[in-house]
């Protein structure tokens, strides 16, 4: 497991921003605990539904998409309506995740090729073009100026 503290930041166009810790997930504060294996057979562990989190944070009416940021600069942008059956996997064998720490997004019925994002550290709710589909990839953290210098 990572030596970093367990924290998932939820922010942006929401009624309530949160900085979530492991105890927020294990206590059931964020919603019911679900065994993911019957839902996504390639995974085991305990998850909470993203829909329960949405009830708590109350995305604003203008919020159309959520960006799931991973610790390695990978990100997935998903329309909010595709999150209805999504899960946040947070525990395996009654412990924090070893692979995918702190949480892993699972979208069992999404319309994107990216149905699994490991090591989610923040979720940013944004307004985007209504026709924008799910996207994923690594954030461009190198500026054109940096490339020109090399």
TrEMBL record:
Oxidoreductase molybdopterin-binding domain location, by residue?
48-130
Q: Which domain of life is it from?
A: Bacteria
InterPro entries linked to this entry: OxRdtase_Mopterin-bd_dom, OxRdtase_Mopterin-bd_sf
**Name by which UniProt lists this protein:** Molybdopterin-dependent oxidoreductase
Organism for this UniProt entry: Tumebacillus lipolyticus
What does the record give as the organism's lineage?
Bacteria, Bacillati, Bacillota, Bacilli, Bacillales
